[in-house]
Amino acid sequence: MTRAAGSAGPGGAPAGAPAVERLRALCLALPEVSERVSHGEPTWFAGAGRRSRVFVMLADHHHDDRLAFWCPAAAGVQEFLIGEDPERYFRPPYVGHRGWVGVGLDAEPVDWARIEDLVGDAYALVTG
Hints:
This protein has a single domain (about 15-125), classed as Aspartate Aminotransferase, domain 1 (Alpha-Beta Complex), CATH 3.90.1150. Residues about 1-15 have low confidence and may be disordered. Strands 1-2-3-4-6-5 form a six-stranded antiparallel β-sheet. About 30% of the residues lie in helices and about 25% in strands. The protein has about 130 residues and is of the alpha+beta class.
């Protein structure tokens, strides 16, 4: 899916809306999850009130023209995924040094089973 960086669809929804909507559904299916815009992107928080923490952040126009999301990962996961498929997985700016992994959503086919696992693991990391 090729588009201009930061382009948006109807209602300000990012381009690539089917992938974004599927990611949104995965995140919002988890307990005590809320969505807010943070740093100009849809971001999903786990927990309530002041204890809520980011566990998935869409990256639709940060530093490149790819549609992706960033999430925390357990020790060693970032390196494993990047080594396995460096076109799809990457070390995101700002948070990559803390083990977060970037996951491309614009290269077909998208492995939604793995994305569901990554989202679930990220949620567990911030709530556990």
